[in-house]
Structures are given as C-alpha cells and as structure tokens.
Amino acid sequence: MLIGLIGVIIFGLTLPFTRSVVAYMNPLSIAFCRAAVAGITAFLILQVTRSPWPNRRQALQLFIVGCGVIIGFPVLSAMALQTVPSSHGGVILGTLPLCTSVLGTIVNKERPSVGYWITAVIGALLVMVYSFREGVGQFGWGDVLLVGSAISASLGYVVGVSLSKDFKGWQVICWALVLMFPVIIIPAWIYWPADFFSFPAVIRAEFLYLALMSQLGGFFFWYKGLAVGGVARVSQVQLLQTAVTLIASVFILGEVLTPDTLLFAALVILVITVNPMQQKKKDFISFFNESQTIPENKSGAKLTETFNYWIFRYEDIVYKVLKKEIKPVSAAIEAHYMEKLQKNAHTLSPNLGFEVWSLELNNGKYELLPLEESEGNTVHFVFKMVYLAPAKMLSTLIEKNKLEFKHLKIVCESLHDFHKRADVMSDRYTGTHDHMQKIFDDLVFQSKKHLHKTFSEAVINMTTAPAQRFLAEHKRLLFSRMKNGRIREIHRCFIPSKICIGKDEALFIPMHFDSISQNYNDVASDVADLVFSLLQSDYKDLSQKFLDHYYRISKDEEMRDLMLFYLVLKGYQRGLYESLKLSMVQDPEEQELILSRAVASYDKAATLATELSSSVTQKIRSRAESAPVISNSNDIDYSDDADDSDAEAEENDEE
C-alpha cells in the first residue's frame, strides 16, 4: 500500500499544476504535448531495458489504458480546470477511488455486498450536491468533464492492473505511451506552443512535472501498488489524493478553501472509508496469519482438502495452498519452478487470473507476498485463480454425455492460440527421433515393472514393434518439426478435468509439476492428450472432428502422420501413471478402479498400435510402388541421423 501512496502523492499535484499551466497552454495542448514528451522518454526506457514487445491481446489492453490515462483524463481534466478551481476538482475527483473499485469489481468479476453499493450511491450523491451548490443551483460543464475524467482514469487503472500480470508496472505505462504515440504525435506537433521557451521557468517546470511524473513516473508506483495489494484495497489510498490536491491548491495557487469545500471533502472521504469493500470478510490468509494454522470453514470460506492442497473459495476466487513445506536448501529452486509455472500459466490462459504467492514466516509473523517479492522464507506456496464452475468443465460434459462439437471447437481454437503464443525451442534435440526414441523406451521399461498387473506380454508385442518401426521411418519428419516451429513449450497434461469451456474461449488450468522440467515438445502431444481422453470415452467421431479442425486452423498437415504414434505414447503414459498410483492406495475398491483404468489405457495403446502398424506398412508399400521423390537436402541439416534414415528406408524398400 505504501508503493501506491507514493503514486497518489505524485498524482495529487496534477490538478494544481494543470490549473497553473492552463493559463499559458490550452487543454488539448497540455494533454497531447505532455503525452508526447512522456512517450519519447518511455521509448528510451524500453530500449535501454530491452523490454519484450506486447502481443496482440496485450496491445489491445494497452490501447485501452492509453485512451483512459493518456488522452481521456488529461484532456477532460484540463478542460474542466478552465472553469473550476483545482480545489473544486479535487473534491469531484474524490470519487476516483469509488470508480476504480466499481470498475475493478466488474473486470475482476467480484460480487460486492448491498452495503457496498449503498455507500457508493451516497458518495455519488454527495458529489452531486456539492457540484449543485457550487454551481449556484445548477451543474456546471466543468463538473461533467471532471466526472468523465475520473471514469477514464479508473478504466486505465483497472485494465493496467490486469496487464501487471504480464508486465512490470513501469512497463505497462511505458508501452501504453509508446503504442499511443502515433495517435498523439500529430496533435502534439500542432498544439505545441511556439513560445514555450519564453514561458516563465516555473510554468515550464510544472509542465515537465505533468509529463514526466503525472503521465509517467507516478504510474510506476501506482500500477505496482495495485498489482501487489489489489485494486479494491489499494485504490482507497486515493482518498488522500483529495487532501494532497486541496493543500497544494492553497500553497501553490493561493486558493481559499471554503467551508463547503472542506465539509464535502471530509464527507466524501468518510463515506468511502467506511465502505464495506474496505471491511470485507477475512480471507483464509488472515486466519492463517492470526492462528498460524490452516483455518476451518469460517466466514463463508469453502474448504476442501486433497493430497497436496488445501483449497479455499471466496466468491469467484479460488486459493490453493500447497501443503508441502519448503526446505531452506531447496527454496530457491522451488521458487524458480513457481516463477516458471506462473509465466506458463499466463501464456496458457491469460484470463484465468493464475498467480503464485509466497506465504512466509518473517520474525515470527506470517506474511503473504507476491512471488517476485519473496524473501526466501517460504512456508507454503499459494495458487490463486478465478473460480471455474464444475458444470462447465470438459470432464463434466463428457461424464453427463453432453459433449458437442461446439465445445471442442472452442477448446481447439483456444489451444491453437496458446500454441502460437508459447515459446519455441531452440535446442535441436528435443522432439527429434533420438529424443522420442528415448521417451518411448523409458516408458516401456518403466511399464514392465508392472508386468502381469496392468501390463501384459501381448501388449508389449503389439505396441513396441510398430512404434519402433514408425520412429525409424519418420526421422526426417521429426527433424522437420523442429525447423517448422512445431516444438514449443506445451501444457504437458492436457486432460478434460483441467479444461473449462467459456462462451468464447476455453481456460486451461496449469499443472503444478509443469514447472519441474522443461515442457518443450511437439504441439501434437497436447492434441493427442485430449484426443486419447475422447477415444477412451467413446467419442471417436467427435475426436476426429476435433483433429480435422485443428489441422485446418493450424495448417499443420504433418501432424496427421504423427498423431497415431503420439496416441500410442499417451496410452503408455496414462497406463504407467495409473500403475504407479496402485502402491499409494490402500482401499481395495479404489485399487480395483485404478487397476481397471491402467489396463484400459494399455489396451487402448495396443489397439492404436495395430492401426499404426497398418499405416506404416501402407506408406512403405505406396512409396515402393511410386517414383522416388527427391527433396532439397539443403533446406534442413539432417546430420548423420538423416543418412541413417535413408539407408533404413532403402532396406525396407528391398524387403
């Protein structure tokens, strides 16, 4: 909250300085010229720090931020201050915390209490009464402009906070200024006063303050504070902005504060201070801090417990507390894994709101900190994300036999969007023939430990030979996937219970173990994960439609040749996963259920391997009967493995 307070103090001087500068520059000149100066400075900062460029989604959000805090607020407030004193504007902008909280609840999908809305209305009415009295029985145009500026600023704040999950606070405002620069540069050129350098030094200094502090530096602290402390909580610090503005109006502009101004300023601050949003229910972290134990189901907190987590739900937010206590020797490594998990989650489903927090024990007191501010004393990691209704989970639709292609189409398109955003692997090894051969051999070796329990000799014979033959036959294809950018940082465990169907997009829940190793693999692995689940649930037709749609929108026709092999691989992975769970369960009924799932996975792998064998045989025969196709060997460096592949192909042709 202290970080946000610094930003508020900086913003509190904006109206008095604007009121002073508006005597020399018109409102549009102030707004566009200060944005242009800040934009050039922001560009230099981004270049020096080599900050990554925003993607299309982030650019759209940055544009909204720019419209709110770079154009909307400066233009409207400067126009308003031509007709009203800055102290008057300070009172009207006392509703800024309320606007920010309201927009924050809408964007973050919170559900404020009835009391919250009652006090919100009272605060708005107080501002209206004050404006009416000051306007001698009527509302002035300046009041309308000030309210509009408050809404514009609030919108920019709230959208900027959502971007703070992808960027640091200073990067958000810098990128917003840079992306808006083409819009503001021409008006700035037109409105730049020719006699600027003849202005009094004080006026020029105040203008530079508006450009470098109000338009740029203040947001460094403000966005950081909102991201760390939350919109609803930290936005209330803006109440002090009215006080800063009133004090500055007296000392800088020599304005006289009327009793009405002081009275209504105090009333607005009082109403918003007692707002129920401030006195919201204690969440599980409060109980944890006080009792140093995980709480029972208190104050509406819904608690469930799994093997690894305590899970709490407050309205539309879910918290998952990782039970494992972190040993000091492994804390740094585990924190690195968590940073990677959070980064991957933001790439996977930006709208999931997934964040990792560190619950730390410092000087005998528990404290919840953002992961980037962790001091290394982590007791528990806390995962936070939006609540996903069970009825909208893909697994529920499958269980209730309500799955339709329209659901899979949403999943398919969201998955493709994720694959386009995911990092590309630079190492040639991952995803190649040798790598896939090692993975398959290791799966077979580990599965053999469960021979005659979940795995039979017949399954081994039916699966290993076709898979080995496929890998030998498709060395070139596996290498080309690397060149074509199809090896990326994938989800790794793309199963129906981790997929939520929304109206326009699917949200994918990250797995905790996703961060333990690098997840670079063929994007076909994600697709095969889901298709295998659909096949196990007897959705053969829908699974084929899903595949065809992915092939079409991704233009990845090569995946057709790979899919059967990856499905066999998934059968082994699922079977081995269930087999390993047998030793962890004591209940005979649960053991029997796990056993049946393991056997079913291995049997499905064997069935798919039979199809794979037929496919490879048919391809070899077709190639033998047709004229050889000479490829351009200069396109891809296949090294020695490619030569081996050619030799093996010739031997197969002779056979």
From TrEMBL:
Residues 2-129, 141-273 form the EamA domain. The chain crosses the membrane at residues 28-48, 60-81, 87-107, 114-133, 139-160, 172-192, 207-225, 260-277. GO terms for cellular component: membrane. Coiled coil: none annotated. It is found in: Membrane. Its main location: membrane. The keyword Transmembrane helix applies. InterPro entries: AA-Vitamin_Transporters, EamA_dom, EmrE-like. Residues 615-655 are annotated as: Disordered. Residues 637-655 have a biased composition (Acidic residues). Keywords: Membrane, Transmembrane, Transmembrane helix. It comes from the Eukaryota. It is a multi-pass membrane protein. Pfam families: EamA. This is EamA domain-containing protein. The lineage of its organism: Eukaryota, Metazoa, Spiralia, Lophotrochozoa, Mollusca.
